[in-house]
Automatic annotation (TrEMBL):
The keyword Lipid metabolism does not apply. Residues 18-72 form the HTH lacI-type domain. Keywords: DNA-binding, Transcription, Transcription regulation. CDD domains: HTH_LacI (cd01392), PBP1_GntR (cd01575). InterPro entries: HTH_LacI (IPR000843), LacI/GalR-like_sensor (IPR046335), Lambda_DNA-bd_dom_sf (IPR010982), Peripla_BP_I (IPR028082). It comes from Larsenimonas rhizosphaerae. SMART domains: HTH_LACI (SM00354). Pfam families: LacI (PF00356), Peripla_BP_3 (PF13377). GO terms for molecular function: DNA-binding transcription factor activity; transcription cis-regulatory region binding. It comes from the Bacteria. This is LacI family DNA-binding transcriptional regulator. Gene3D superfamilies: 3.40.50.2300, lambda repressor-like DNA-binding domains.
Length: 344
């Protein structure tokens, strides 16, 4: 279609949009088959699904989500609320969610809280007005307002990123256990003056949970557990700042357990710049298992969190609940692995 033809078509008052019936006629199938293509595509045979998909593209059909929601009282929209849309950790979780939910005919509606629980409550209140089929939200810690909204809501909720008792379903990992595992690893490697460094741990409370596990491991070994909690969330800059601060004020420190890989990599880069030998002068460890850590010199010792798997399993739990299928378990612990690089 030429540009002029398209303009003329849009200009005609009352011009009819392609309908589901048009798609069925083009594909040579019944209208109910086209409906199933949008509502439950996995129920169709591959050949039928491809035929309907080609017909949708040929006639230019776009599904009217509002009309569908009027008939079912819910939309095929799943809000996803996370602290950040710039952090690769949450981007990978969202990718896992997207793989499963879009294949089942659902669309994601994204919102970020900036680690602000009041902002989270505002997003929940707004998104529930979309008559969503379910909701996915990061964390187990919420404001009273958020908890009340979600407890009174009649649709499924999956809390992600951490493992524990939640509002409904839960997929994540035990952050206290992760912190304990890394601290134990550093102790087993012979380090005895180990600091933990984070940034705004009151807001990033999962990093605070990892510190609690770290502290328990050190105290069990009869050692103190110094904490440096910086006020800035400029993560790589904060890592460099933490390294310099600890080297200046605690010269006997032989290892720093950072709250995340961003801070740890910032410290590694600062050490390279200033001629500090890692791990000979001081060891560095992180959390998340980000790709950048594998490309540092030396490679970063870190805890790897299965971020994409968290998204996939959360989507699967949500879809089972929507379809009325048995869940097996409400809470899923995806675990973690310790990757031993050369930085510790």
């Amino acid at each position: 279609m030429s540009r002029d033809d398209a303009h003329e078509k849009r200009s005609r008052k009352g011009a009819m949009q392609p309908t589901l019936t048009d798609v069925a006629r083009e594909a040579g199938v019944a209208p109910i088959t086209v409906s199933r293509y949008f509502n439950d595509p996995e129920a169709l045979r591959d050949a039928t699904r491809l035929k309907v998909e080609a017909a949708v593209n040929q006639v230019g059909y776009v599904r009217n989500m509002i009309a569908g929601s009027l008939a079912s009282a819910t939309t095929r929209v799943i809000p996803v609320i996370v602290p950040s849309l710039a952090n690769v950790v949450f981007i990978e979780v969202i990718r896992g969610l997207q793989q499963r939910l879009e294949a089942a005919g659902y669309q994601l509606l994204l919102g970020k809280t900036d680690y602000d629980l009041d902002r989270e409550a505002q997003l929940v209140r707004t998104f529930l007005g979309w008559s969503a089929s379910g909701l996915i939200i990061a964390g187990l810690r919420h404001s009273d307002e958020t908890r009340q909204l979600l407890e009174n809501w009649n649709q499924p909720v999956v809390e992600i990123m951490e493992y524990g008792d939640g509002l409904d379903m839960n997929v994540g990992l035990d952050h206290r256990a992760a912190g304990h595992a890394m601290a134990t690893h550093l102790l087993n490697r012979g380090y005895r003056h180990i600091h933990y460094a984070g940034a705004e741990l009151e807001r990033d409370y999962r990093a605070g949970e990892r510190f609690e596990g770290h502290r328990q491991a050190l105290e069990a070994a009869g050692l103190p557990a110094p904490l440096l909690d910086l006020p800035s969330r400029q993560q790589m800059d904060s890592g460099a700042e933490a390294l310099m601060h600890i080297r200046t004020h605690s010269p006997t420190c032989d290892a720093i357990h950072f709250a995340n890989d961003d801070m740890a990599c910032g410290a590694l880069l600062a050490a390279m710049r200033d001629g500090i030998r890692i791990p000979e002068d001081i060891a560095i460890a992180g959390f998340n298992g980000l790709p950048i850590g594998r490309h540092m010199t030396p490679r970063l010792t870190t805890i790897v969190s299965p971020r994409e798997l968290i998204g996939q399993r959360a989507a699967e739990q949500l879809l089972r609940r929507i379809r009325g299928e048995p869940l097996g378990e409400l809470s899923i612990n995806v675990g973690f692995t310790l990757h031993e690089g050369e930085s510790a």
